[in-house]
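Weekly puzzle thread! Below is a chain. First person to post its structure in token form gets bragging rights.
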Amino acid sequence: MKLVVDDVEVGDIEACARIACESEIGVRYGFERGALAGKMREALASGAIIVAARAASAAAEAARTEPLGFAWIDPRGAFGSAPYLKLIAVDGTKRSSGVGSALLEAYERRTATIGRVWTLMVSDFNLRAIAFYERHGYEKVGVIPDFSREGIAELLMTKQRP
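Winning reply:
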């Protein structure tokens, strides 16, 4: 499948919120679609970067296709000085098809001149995500126990810029 990664528009927010709510972290943390969509709209209005991966086709040139996944990027969200990947989510039917990799590459490309490292946090139960990030060069640099939920640790992961 050929992918295109572009900016999320307000009309994409509902689809992105649905994808996030259906993801492992969304289910585990009890994301609420309306609340998440509202936060994403506010983030867009305040200058956050949210990108979506879409299927590229001749038809897509005439009309945007619904997102297959998205990445929510806070350009200086890690300690006020480094890019932070706030959330990445891929439609359950499109996992392992390159969508996540395309979104992660867009995160790194769009923030390549900010800070010295790329940062993200991933829940300790999300073993597939941890392995995904490690395959892309991210390393575990810290653990924050009970950060979002009691009994769940968040792993702080970073990748050095070349």
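Puzzle host: Confirmed. Bonus trivia for everyone else. The chain has a mean pLDDT of 91.
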